[in-house]
Amino acid sequence: MKYEICAKVKNLVPYQPALGEYPIRLDANEGFFDLQSPLYWEEEALPLRDQALSKIRDGLSRVPLNRYPDPTCDALREAFSKRYGTKPSFVTAGNGSDELISLLCGSLMEKGARLVTVSPDFSMYRFYGDIYELENIVWQKPSDLCLDPQALGDFVAEKKGDMLLFSNPCNPTSLVLEKEKVEALVASLPQPLVVVDEAYMEFSSPQSVLDLVEKYDNLVVLKTCSKALGLAGIRLGFAVANETLTRALWAVKSPYNVNSLTQSVGLAVLESPALCRYCTEKIRQSCKDLEQELQSLFAGKKNIRQIFPSQTNFVFLQGPAAQSIFKGLMDRGIMVRNMEGAIRITAGSPEENRLLLKALTEIVR
Ligand SMILES: *Cc1c(COP(=O)(O)O)cnc(C)c1O
Questions:
Q1: What phi, psi does 150 have (nearest 5°)?
Q2: Residue 199 C-alpha to ligand 1 middle, in angstroms?
Q3: Cα radius of gyration rounded to whole Å, the chain
Q4: What sign has the CA pseudo-torsion 244, 245, 251, 255?
Q5: I need a labelling partner for 352 at 20 to 30 A (CA). Which of 167, 248, 283, 346 fits?
Q6: Is the CB of 237 under 6 A from ligand 1?
Q7: Distance of alpha carbon 263 from alpha carbon 65, whole angstroms
Q8: Helix or strand or coil: residue 182?
């Protein structure tokens, strides 16, 4: 007998971001500018950047590399709570929100528990459901791709879901569900755990349900520094929930899940509200510009039926030409996200957006 990898893992392939060299990457919803480069910073914002950078570098230079990191990320949770108006005792920091999704699925659910997700939505949810041997149950959104809270709530109740997990605003549709509707959904489902992934909520903030975690004992809200702050490289996310849930998350997480360098950079950034606002606003503006240009490029063209009004840092386009546009862009060195009958384009720098639009103009001609 020889060793064999277990059946559920054997045929899995490692996650592979788009292969090959593409000078323009608009496929992963990253921020388009790097704090460490002065590119894309307006003259008047440079002092803000210099201040933030020296704070970051000063922090990093004092990280003791021989010591384990703070397992509970106290300073970081404090700064996060101040920024988001919550309590540190409600917060768990993670190695990206990805780790927290993994923990919620793998450690807070029993094997065989029913995980309800919606489609289309962030693909990682179902991946973790599979890995942890949950029963993946999918609610298909209607053709307008809007999330109907009543219909979804009925579905979760009927299927006896143990956990409902969805993104709001939604990746990939870029649409947001209003706070009252999310609250009504949570209130109608007292038994299952309801996880609202607000990875993009900073672009649409009044709809956040973060302030409701104390009111509902089954609500978890996820946040990340990867999108609105453009810090995907440091891998830092947060789960916000009441103290009982938070204690459970702390009990199951690996003790040193957020490394000291990440804690240090995250702290410096979260303690600079002006910097956070500036980064988010820059990305939001780029997305608004991109959306508008795409609207005028595709106006009256049937091959792209719809461009969704974006509440995120990307634009979602739907129509029969999606696949050929994806290929045409790839041929021109521009990578966007290809989906069934749709493409998702991350807002890039002004130059990247310009080259994208130039390529699209050629393709649709
Ligand atoms: C990008 C994204 C994440 C991942 O965030 P990390 O903190 O980088 O792991 C989580 N949820 C959604 C919906 C995303 O789009």
A1: -65, -50
A2: 6
A3: 21
A4: negative
A5: 167
A6: yes
A7: 13
A8: helix
Quickly list DSSP for 226-256: SSSS--GGG--EEEE--HHHHHHHHHHS-TT
**What is the distance in A from the centroid of ligand 1 to the CA of 98?**
6
How far is the C-alpha of 155 from the C-alpha of 159, rounded, in Å? 6
Give the amino acid at 145.
Answer: L
Q: What is the pLDDT of residues 202-247, one digit of tens each?
A: 999 899 999 999 999 999 999 999 999 999 999 999 999 999 999 9
Distance 224 CA to ligand 1 centre (A): 7
What's the rounded Cα separation, in Å, for the pair 82 and 64? 25
DSSP assignment of 293-354: HHHHHHTT-TTS-EE---SSSEEEEESTTHHHHHHHHHHTTEEEEEETTEEEEE---HHHHH
Residue-wise pLDDT tens digits, 293-333: 999 999 988 889 899 999 999 999 999 999 999 999 999 99
Q: Candidates 117, 171, 311: which one to mutate for ligand 1, based on the most atoms within 8 Å of Cβ?
A: 171
Whether residue 271 has its Cβ less than 6 Å from ligand 1: no
Report pLDDT digits (tens) over 151-179.
Answer: 999 999 999 999 999 999 999 999 999 99
CB of 32 closer than 8 Å to CB of 348: yes
Cβ atoms within 10 Å, residue 285: 12
Residue 12 CB neighbours (<10 A):
11
Residue 249: which residues within 8 A CB-CB, separation 6 or more? 92, 100, 103, 104, 107, 108, 239, 241
Residue 220: which residues within 8 A CB-CB, separation 6 or more? Answer: 104, 193, 194, 195, 196, 213, 239, 240, 241, 245
* Residue 122 Cβ < 6 Å to ligand 1: yes
